[in-house]
What we know:
This protein is mainly alpha-helical.
Amino acid sequence: MAEAVLRDHATRLGLTQVASAGVWASSRRQEADKRALQALHARSYGLDRRWRSRRVRPEDFDEFDLLLAMDREVLRGLESVRPARSPAHLALFLQGMTGLGRDEVPDPYFGTAEGFERVLDLIEARTQAWPAPAALMRHFTSD
């Protein structure tokens, strides 16, 4: 879901590449959850129906400047597979966001369709609150 929203805002955010991958994603390259697709479609976000999940690859840490994790467990997973000397920055997706009452995005997979709507609300709030392109990387790399 975050990939679809970020792709929609890529130009405004100064992003040249947007991709999503999981630390523990199945090697079977599964389709997006139908509830996620319904939530995205209801808000006019597109996600190619050919989209399939994939695992984070070592080359992702060279190809992308910033890898964002939805929760701390995923962040720890990224840190554990990050190649030595990788230039990539790792951060929580909601890092620096105030007023949400949380700093992690919950996994809606085992819940209801409403859970996917709530997650999409968080993704949209985070994406709309990001700073101008010149400050985006600084936002995630400052301590």
